[in-house]
Amino acid sequence: MPEITPSDSSVELGNMFDRIVEDAIQDGVAGKSLLKGIFYHYVKRTKYTQIILVLESAAHILQALALGGLIRHIASPDSPASSGYLWASAIVGCSIYVMFAHHIYFFATWRLGMQYKNGAIASIYRKCLRLKSTHNKGGVVQNLATNDVERFFLAAIFLPYLLFGPIEALAVLAIGVNLIGWSFGIGYILLLLFVPLQYHLSQKFATVRAKVAKITDRRVELISQAVGGSRLMKMSVWERSFEERIEAVRREEIKALADANNLKAYNEALFFVCNVVIAAVIFTAKTQLMDETLTASDVFTVITLVNIVQFTMTKFFSLGIMGVSEVAVTITRIEAFMRTEEVSGRKVKTIEDEEDLAVELNDVTTYWDDDVSGVRAIGNVNLKVEKGTIKLVIGPVGGGKSALVSAIIGDQHPHTGSVSVNGTLAYAPQQPFIVSATIKENVLFGKPFDSKWYQEVISAVALDVDLEALTEGDKTVVGDRGVNLSGGQKARIGVARALYEKPDVIVLDDIMSAVDVKVMRKIWEEALVKLLLNRLKSSIILVSHQHQFCRDPIVGSNNVLVLDGEIRGEGTYEECISLSEGRLISGAAPEQTKNTKKSRKAKELSDSTPNEEDPLLPPPPPPTEDSNGEVGGMTSATEDTAIGKISAATFKTYLRAMSNSNTYYPFAGVMLTMLGGQALLIWTMAELGKWAEKSPSEQRSASTLATIWVLVGVTIVLGFIRSTNSFHRLLNAAFNLHSKMTRAVLSTKISFFDTRPLGLILNRFSADVGITDDQLVATIFDFMLCGLMTLGSVVTAAYALPIVLTAVPFLAYYFVGLRRVYIKASREIKRIESATRSPVYTALSESLSGLSTIRTFEGAEKFFSKEFQSRHDENLRAFFAWLACTRWLGFRLDAICLGLLMAACYLAVICRHHTGFNIEPAILGLALTFLIQLAGLFQWTVRQSAEAENMLISVERILEFADLEPESNLDNIEDPAEAVEVSEDWPQEGGMTFLNVKAKYRASLEYALKGISFEIKGGEKVGVVGRTGSGKSTLLQVIMRLLDVVEGTMTVDGVDTSKVPLRAFRKKFAVIPQTPTLFNVSLKDNLDPFGEYEDSAIWDALDIVQMKGVIKGLGEGLDYMCSSGGGNFSVGQRQLLCLSRAILTKCKILIMDESAANVDPLTDVKLQEAVKKCFAGSTVLSIAHRLESVMEYDKVLVLGAGEILEYGAPSELLKDKHGSFYAMVEDSRLEG
C-alpha cells in the first residue's frame, strides 16, 4: 500500500476533529454545537470544489442545448455540414469538461468524507482514554466508531447539491420556458411537488436512522457481553437465552431498517419515474393546453434538461438531504459522547514540609457512578502513607477497598476532600488488564527494555518457570484478555508490569487471590519487600484478603487499615480486627518455622511446570527488536484474509438468503421486476419521441394521449413495486445471514473465543453487518438499476445508428482490460481494508477494558495512542488506495463513454451529409440522450458492480463465522446408537468417576491432564488444590466438556458423560467461575435469565450470600441495572452474586473455581456455611488457593503438572509430613 500524506494520517485527522470539537462544545457558549462546527469547517474546505460543481452544472445545460441544435440540424434538410460539426463539437466539449470536473469533485469530497470519518474515530479513541471507567459503554463506542461514522461520506459528497441543486433547477426552468414555452413551467410544478415530498421522506429517514442507531447499540452490546462472558454463557447453558435476546433486538432493528429502506425505495422510485412523468406533463400541456406542435428537437431537449434536473434534484438533492439527516444523527451522538464526563486526573503532591509523605487523602468521600443521590462508596477517609512503607488495607466485601484504590489512582473523583500522590504511580488491578500481545510487551507496557531489571522482575513474581515451559518464552502471544493464561499467570503479569515501572507509589488491589501459597510468599518476599521496599524505597498500598501478611514485621505497628465504608481502624492487625465490630475475623495463624522438609512429591508440586494448562494459541513469530533491544509496537492479532475473487458459493448463499426457504425464487422475482421496469421505461421514452413525429391532429388525439399516460402510469406502479420488493428482499438476506452467524458463534467451541480478540469478533457483528444491512442493499439495487439503464442506452444507440457499433469492439476491449485490472486490485485492497479495520476496533475495545491501568502508568496513554495510530494508519492507507483506485477506473470508463458519444455525434453528421443513410431525428435524439446520460452512468454501473463485489467480502466474512463448527453433541449425540437418555432428576446422587482421563488443548501440544483417575462419591465435598498451572482449571474445563477428553472416561452416576447431549449435561451443574461476570441487564435477569424463579426465592438466595442488604440499599432492588461486566459492584460482590445464582439452581453438583478468592476470611466462612446449607447432599468440587476453605471438606485432590499427587481426606493427608498437601499448609502458615 502507498504511504498516506501527513494530512491524511490518524494523528492529523484526530487533531483536526479535536479542534472542531473543542471549538464547538465549549461550556457556556450559546449557539454552538458540533454539527455547526463541522458544517462551517466543511464550507471552508470545499469552496474551490463548489466552483467546479457550478461550472459542471453549466456544462450540462449547454450540452442539452447543443443536443437540441444537433437534432434540429439532422431534421433540417438545408442545414450545412459545418453547423452539424459545430453542434457535435459543443456536445463533446461539454462532455470533456464534465468528465474532468466530475472526478475532481468526487475525489475531493470522498477524501473529505474519509477525513471526517477517521478523524472522528481517532477523536473517539482519545476520548475513551479520558472516560471514567464507570462510563464505559463498549457497545455504544463500537457502534459509533464502526457504523455511525460511515454517514460522513454521503453528506460530504452531496451536501453542496442542497444549494446548487435548486439553483440549477431554476436555471433549467428559465432556459426551458424560453425554448419550449410556459408548458415547461407547468411540468416544473410537478418537480416542485417532488422536492418537498423528498424532504419529508428524508426527515422521516433521519428519525428512523436515529432509532436504528440506538437499537444497533443494544444489539452490539449484547453480543459484546455474550462473547466477553463466553465461558460463563456456555457453562450456564445461556446460549439460547442470548440468541433469543439478540434475535429480539435484531428483529426490532430490522423493522426500523425496513422503515428506512421503504423511504429509500420511495426515493429510488421517484428518481426512476421523475423524468418520464415530468416530460409527459410538459408535452401534454404543450399539445393540449397551449395547442402547440411538438418537434423532435423539443422532445429531446426537454428530456435532456429534465434528466439534468432528475439527477440533481431527485437523486443528488435527495441523497444530500438523506446524507445530512443521517450525519446529523451521527454528529449528535458523537457530541453526546464527547460531552460524557471525564476523569479529572490525580493531583501530584509537592508539599515541601511533608517530604516523607507519599500518599495523602483528606476527608475523602466518593460515590459509585459519581451520583451523589446514589450509593456512597467511601466516606470521610483520612489516610497518610509515608514513603518507603507498606500500607495493608483489609475489610469485608463491599467495604469500599476498590473505591479507595480508584480514588488514589484518579479514576474516581472525590465528592469532598482531596487526594494527593507524590511521585510516579503504578497499579495492578484485581482483574489484570492483559492485551493481545506478547507476554514481554504486556510487562513492558511501552517502556524501554532493560534486560537486567526485566529478568529480576520476572523472577521476583515467579514467572521465570512459566516462561521456560513455553516454546517462545516471553515472546508468546497471549490471547485477547489473556484467555490462554491461568488466573495466577495473569495476576503475576499485572504485578510484573507495575514493578517494572519502578514507581514511587504502587497500588496493588488483591493481587494474591489468584496465586497459590508458595507463589504468594515469593511475591511478598522477593517483589514487594526486596525490590520495592528495600531497593526502590517505594511506597506500597496493598489491598488484600490474605491476612497472613498483616503480622509480618516489615508492615510495622501502624500500617494495617480496616475499611468498611469508612476507616474503622488503623494500627496493628489485632487492633484492626477488634475495631471491625465483628465484620472481620483473623485469617492469619501464628508464625511457624519455614524449615519444613519437603518430600519428593512436594518438590514435584513446587517445581511443576505451571503452564501445562496453557497455551491455546500457537506460538507466533517473535516481534522484531531494534538495535537498542527495545521492543517495538505491540504484536496484534490479525485476521486471515481470503485471496482472489468472491467464490460462487458466496454469491449463491447470499441470493438464497433473500428467501426464508433458501430458494432462488425471490431473487428471480426481483430480476423480473427490474427488467420489466427498464423495458417499460425505454418503451415509454420511445413513444414520447414518436409523439413528435405525428401530425398536429394526431398529437392532440385522445388515443395518443391515452397510450402515453397508460404507459406512464404502469411505469410508475412498476417502479414502486420493483424498488420496494428489491429493498425488502435484500434486507431479508441481511437478517438471515446475521441470524445464522449469531447461532453459529454462540454454539461454537470455546477455543474460538480464546483465539480471537473481542474487537475482531465485534467487527463482524458491527461493521460487516452494517455493510450488509445498509450499503450493500443500496449498492446492489443501484447496480441492477444502472446496469439495465446502461444496457438500454447502448441498445438504443445501436438501433438508431448501427454504424456506432464499429467503435464498440475497440472500446469493449479496452473496457474488459480495465475492469479486469480494477476488479482484481480493488477486491484485494478492500479485503486488506477489512482486515486492517479489525485491529483498530480491537485496540479500541482493549483500551476500554483497561482504562484505569492505562491512565495510571506514566507514558502508557501515549504508548497506546501511538499503537492505535499505527493500526489506524494501516487501515487509512488501504482505504485511500481503494478510493484512488475507484477514481482511476471511473475516469477511464467515462473516457470510453466519451469515445462512444463522440463517435455517435460525428457519425450522425457524416451519415447525414456524406451517405444515403436515413436517420430518424426522434430515434437519434433518444440514442444521444441515453449516451449523454451514459457518460456518468456507465462508470457508476461498473464501479457499483465492483463495489457490490467488494461489499460481498463482508458477506464472505459473515459466512466464515456462520460456518463455524459447533461443539460436538450439542443437542443430540452424533451416533444415536450410543446416546444415553437421562431422566429430568438425573443425577440423583452426583457421584463422579474419572478413569485414565487425558486431555490436551491442541493435537500438537503435550497432555494438560495426563491420565488422571479418581472417584467422588455422591454428596462428597472435594477441594482441588495445586500451584498455578497444575491443571486445576483444565480439570474444570474437562468436567464441563469445554475441552474434549482425548482418552479415558468420565462418568456421573455411572453414565458416560460423552453420551449425554452437551446442553442437557451442562444444565445439571452449577458453576461459580474464577472470573465473576455480570451482564448489562437488570440484576434479576443476571440471576434468573430464564425467569424460572419467584422474586422471593431470589431474595432468599441473596440473603444467604450476605448481599440482600446491599441490593435493598440500591433503591431499585432486583431491577437495578448492572453495568457491563458488573463494574458497579466490587469483584467480591460479583462473586457473591454468582454464588447466589448457583444457589437458585439447586443443582446436584456444584463446581466452584476460586469462588472465595476475592472475599475476606469472615465472608469466606459464611460462604462455606451457605454452601453446606444450600448444597447439603450435593456434590461440591471446589478449586481453591485459600486452603482454609477446603480444610473442612471430605477430601482434597492435589494436582501437579496435570497429574494427581495426592487424594484423600485433609486430616489423613496432613499426617504425611513429607506430602504435598502438608507442605502447602506449612507454606500458608496454617495450623495443621
Description:
This protein is an alpha/beta fold. It is 59% helix and 9% strand. The chain has 38 helices and 20 strands. The strands form four sheets. The protein has a six-stranded mixed β-sheet with strand order 6-7-8-4-9-10, with helices on both faces. β2 (357-367) and β3 (376-386) form a beta hairpin.
List the helices and strands and how they pair.
Blueprint: H1 10-24, H2 34-45, H3 47-75, H4 81-130, H5 138-146, H6 151-158, H7 161-180, H8 182-228, H9 230-235, H10 239-289, H11 296-338, E1 347-348, E2 357-367, E3 376-386, E4 390-394, H12 401-409, E5 416-421, E6 425-428, H13 439-444, H14 451-460, H15 464-468, H16 487-500, E7 505-509, H17 517-535, E8 539-543, E9 560-564, E10 566-571, H18 573-579, H19 600-607, H20 648-657, H21 665-691, H22 696-699, H23 702-747, H24 750-754, H25 758-800, H26 808-849, H27 851-856, H28 860-914, H29 921-962, E11 992-999, E12 1009-1016, E13 1021-1025, H30 1032-1039, E14 1045-1052, E15 1055-1056, H31 1062-1066, E16 1069-1072, H32 1083-1087, H33 1095-1104, H34 1108-1112, H35 1131-1145, E17 1149-1153, H36 1161-1174, E18 1179-1183, E19 1195-1200, E20 1203-1208, H37 1210-1215, H38 1220-1227
Helix pairs in contact: 1-2, 1-4, 3-4, 3-7, 3-11, 3-29, 4-5, 4-6, 4-28, 5-8, 5-26, 6-11, 7-8, 7-11, 8-10, 8-11, 8-25, 10-11, 10-21, 10-23, 11-29, 14-16, 19-38, 20-23, 21-23, 21-25, 21-29, 23-25, 23-29, 25-26, 25-29, 26-28, 26-29, 28-29, 33-35
